Amino acid sequence: MTDLKVGGVPEHFNYPWYITLKNKEYNKHNINLRWQDFYGGTGQMCKALRDGSVDIAIVLTEGIIKDIADGNPSKIVQTFVKTPLIWGIHVGANSSFKKIEDLEHATIAISRFGSGSHLMAIVNAYNQGWYISKLKFKVIKNLDGGIEALTNGEADYFMWEHFTTKPLVDKGIFRRVGDFPTPWSSFVIAASDKAIENDQKSLELFLSVLNAKTKIFKTLEHIEHALSERYEQNLEDIKKWLSITSWSQKSLDKKELELALNYLEKLNMIDKKSDNQLYLTQI
Question: Which end of the chain is less crowded, N or C, counting CB atoms within 10 A of the terminal residue's CB?
Answer without folding.
Answer: N
